[in-house]
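Record copied across here:
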Amino acid sequence: ALMVLTLKVISCSINYNDGLLKEEGLREAQKKYRLLKCPSLLEYVGYCLCCGSHFAGPVYEMKDYLEWTERKG
């Protein structure tokens, strides 16, 4: 569970960093998953502790989680 949590923290920080970069230099996956604004504390904790993938994975992207919680994806 701790390993999955570590992967979620790293992926969220990379996606947020991609959101700070100009879109023209990004690959398609980076454009798809980048975060244009920092998630709220509740969104971040919810993503990190969501039990859907805690025991065996797979790790999903923060943007997928946010779309799921907003019933968009």
Observations:
- The mean pLDDT is 90.
- The longest helix spans residues 2-20.
- Residues 2-69 form one domain.
